[in-house]
Amino acid sequence: MYCESVIPAGILAIAICYFGFPAGAGKELTVVSGLMIMVVATIQLFMAFGLHYSTAYPRHMVRPLADNGIIWGGLLVPLVLFAKNCNELNAFNLWLASVAMAWSFTFALLSKRWWILGIAGMGVLGYTSSPKHTLLMVVGPGAQHIIMHKIIHWMPRSFTVGETAVIAQGLVLMTIDLVTRRNSVSDDQSMYLLILEAAGLCLTLTIVILRQMCSISILLVPILGTVLLVALIARVNVISWAINAVLNEPINYIIVGYWGIIFAGGLVFYNRYWQSTSSKLVLHLKRKAFHILAVLLFVPGFINPPLLHLGFTVALVLFVWVEAIRVLAIEPGASSINQFMSQFTDSRDAGSIITSHFYLLLGCALPVWIGSSSVVASLAGVLALGIADTAASLVGIRYGTRKWPCTCKTLEGTAAFIVSLFIAVELVHVVAPSNEGALQNFIMCVVLGLLEALTEQNDNLIIPLTMYSISTLINKI
User: Fold this and answer.
1) Cα 407 to Cα 405: distance, rounded to the nearest angstrom
2) DSSP bridge partners of 403
3) For 226-246, what is each residue's pLDDT tens digit?
4) Hey, how many other C-beta atoms are within 10 angstroms of the C-beta on 405?
5) What is the pLDDT of residues 181-221, one digit of tens each?
6) CA contacts within 13 A on the Cβ side of 77
7) Within 10 Å of residue 401's Cβ, how many Cβ atoms?
8) CB-based contact 208:185 (threshold 8 Å)
9) Any residues with CB less than 8 A from the CB of 159 and at least 6 apart, and which?
10) Can you give the pTM of this predicted structure?
């Protein structure tokens, strides 16, 4: 929706006006990259409100019943990186690559007469850059467009254009960070990040291989590839290192045991009560069961964030395995998985793969993986999806009578989202005091509530990353 486009552009504009351009290698490069992202935001707003543009992807290839989401494809990743911290040189490299990809993505949507301006902008950015930065600006956008093309054609009707751009940019930035962190694994935190990036790259390779060769043995690639990459970069056996990291902390025994109890309880609930009633409210509660499960699982995990970081990585690998077995119809297991997962699908799962559970996992995991000095920012996925989104859904379907224009969301549901999120955020501040004021947090909750009501993108990804960005920026004021 048009009003939705104002949110990411407005947040980024306010952040740049308050904090200034991201500091990096050279004043000219800092100013040019900052101005370029502001131009991208301006053009994206004009696109949303009427400037002609087109995508290279036919409508039948992208997710139906949703807009293109190009404003998020152009601004979400730069916004997250801006909030994170661009004063460190390596972080600035990622910021620069994200700006180049956002610029290339935006001008690729416009007519050919705009391409000259797009090429000129990249030329100015390259002129003010070092050879290493220039290489990032060439490789980054090129890889982004190749990945987007493959995702759209290999997984038709599964993603919008904006969601595809965000995924492609994330994969490119992950690879850049993996390459540039060679010989820089100095502590446990960087080791956890290295494992994540190696696993992510190997999962991507697994998907590519499965397109050419359907075999269950290919599912070993993420494990073997991660072990090999970590050994080459850090000269460490990742399996023995991970086992020692988990066993050396006594608190980890309690956390892992708690996770086991929650999983066992979930299985009992599923077997006994899942089909006990068919009322509309309870059926909707079933679809939100995983959101509630996320709160029960992940909040205690913040007692030891490194363990949670590693747990999210393992969960991502398992999710890819399960979805690959389902899509490839590998028996025994595929039919049971398909029957179970079909209970949670909606219009956003119209494509060849079921994306809802991936987005829920990533929405909770990305704030943890990216990291922040703000506890609320790290908990963004759990608070926004596990508490606020669940409250909005249940209140909206039970008591909602007044709907937002052009959506199925209700005003009552939005109010429940805002109130529940604000209460949750304030409770977090009671446990972990910070500099974030109540008024600032309330404004953040209102913005996120409006976004949840208006967006046609997958809110399991968009809302947590937006909340992460706002909360991190508020914490820096």
Assistant:
1) 6
2) 410
3) 989 888 888 888 888 888 888
4) 7
5) 655 666 777 888 889 999 999 988 888 887 777 777 777 88
6) 30
7) 8
8) no
9) 62, 63, 151, 152, 167, 351, 355
10) 0.93
